[in-house]
Predict the 3D structure of the following.
Amino acid sequence: MANFSKSTVPQFSVDVYQNEFLPEGGRDVSAIVTVTSTGGGTSGQRLLGPGGGGTAGVVIMVDCSGSMDYPSTKMRGAREATAAAVDTLRDGTSFAVVAGTHVAKEVYPGNGGLAVADARTRAEAKESLRRLSAGGGTAIGTWLRLADRLLASADLTIRHGILLTDGRNEHESPEELRAALDACAGRFTCDARGVGTDWEVKEVTGIASALLGTADIVADPSALAADFTAMMEHAMDKGVADVALRLWTPVGVEISFVKQVAPTVEDLTVRRTEAGPRAGDYPTGSWGDESRDYHVSVRVPQAAIGQEMLAARVSLIAPDPAGGDPRPLSQGLVRAVWTDDLAMSTSINPQVAHYTGQAELADVIQQGLDARKSGDHDGATAKLGRAVQLAAASGNADTAKLLSKVVDVVDAATGTVRLKAKVAEADEMTLETRSTKTVRVKR
């Protein structure tokens, strides 16, 4: 492990966990890369960015479509939640509030830009929430594009959005939403929430995935204020933005995949941008004081027993505020060594095994729920049974609890389950929304 950070910026470390030993003819190398950031959390209006300074900007996008009045507790909960989020803003943070329907409208400050949080602007923003009322359709892409314009109006280190919706994106095409997400990706991160049970899980999770944020369900509108407070606190803790995981591989090495595997599963493989000969960058978004795990899998050329090679070099890269080349923050090495020792070459690294299971857990939950919705009860039973087995084996108690609301567990160890005859819609949506959340491996 090498660390290139200075004491004036957040410290990043990279640890690599793998079994580097391959049998004769072996080519596939897997490693879990743990990235830890310390000193990146913030405690005031000045944030620590790669260059030692900068500010944060947050745009809160509130669904104000007609369905938010049915029941009226959703609109009331949204106002209270937005007020709670505004109260959580630290002094000096730039912010705005947007009302989203089939069009996007500025609610506060309303001048085409951002306000700077202090006692006066927080009070003004909360007063402006009285103007939030339900009526109209839903076109989330327009909300995101307005948020992008507002965040681009100021010189910011951290750019973040919080988005709340209660319904399906019915007033623009899926292609229009995808185009908006493509336009906003890499420009700001965004947490997305669905309130109630009339929204589409894949839309909300797709927004969060594209913009490197979190997604969740808030089935009861009365819980929105606490959730918004927690989201804003998390956003305020971010101290360094636009960090990339750079993967360099020698000639002849093929990249199989790059995935974030903790705290959630997120496949980053197709998000690679080229960064010079045999190097590519994978976006990781903004960081505070936290640790995340990534699964890197590569295929190396065959080699003889006794040979060894560098299979990949993993670095954390941050932009240079002066506009120069990105600067390395830390790096780790992935190795390959060929051996005729069967015990060494067949041993599976515990971290790799754990997160391979967690990725499969997320997949089989989605497949099981899709099968259930399509009426394939046998397929749903098999997939959700496997999910119960994986959750039990890995100690993922939260997911196991969610699964127990969709299936009756006969034997968790063998994955023997029965589909419940009746499942609350909120329980099924919660399982689907949170299916990618993982539990950290015990080291």
The radius of gyration is 23 Å. The CA atoms of residues 88 and 232 lie 6 Å apart. The longest strand covers residues 327-338.
